[in-house]
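Thread amino acids onto this structure.
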């Protein structure tokens, strides 16, 4: 079991960057494949990308490919989402989630057993 906490959200202008962090307040995040999701007001929660438990495999949705990078640090028990070239349409609450599966491309929410409470990202035009 693991408890996840996101941080690093904020307000940034279009074209700017933010780095989100996903920490485990309890448990070892290193044991899980981690997915990042986002949810804008009035929209479904959507998958952004994921990283396998050992960091060896990553996946990104087309909407963020080339702009976002997921990484992890097992020593610090953290997973990161580096977001560059941000666009207003990237504005959303961002969530990290943990799955026992090894594949980093699992986009359906039911694969993920543990979720953080989210951090808000707002990109102004």
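Threaded sequence (125 positions):
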């Amino acid at each position: 079991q693991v408890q996840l906490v996101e941080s690093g959200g904020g307000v940034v202008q279009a074209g700017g960057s933010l780095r989100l962090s996903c920490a485990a307040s309890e448990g070892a995040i290193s044991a899980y494949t981690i997915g990042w999701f986002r949810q804008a007001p009035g929209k479904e929660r959507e998958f952004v990308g994921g990283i396998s438990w050992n960091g060896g495999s990553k996946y990104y949705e087309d909407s963020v490919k080339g702009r976002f990078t997921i990484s992890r640090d097992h020593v610090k028990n953290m997973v990161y989402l580096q977001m560059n070239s941000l666009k207003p349409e990237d504005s959303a609450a961002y969530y990290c989630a943990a799955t026992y599966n090894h594949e980093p491309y699992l986009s359906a929410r039911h694969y993920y057993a543990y979720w953080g409470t989210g951090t808000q990202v707002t990109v102004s035009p």
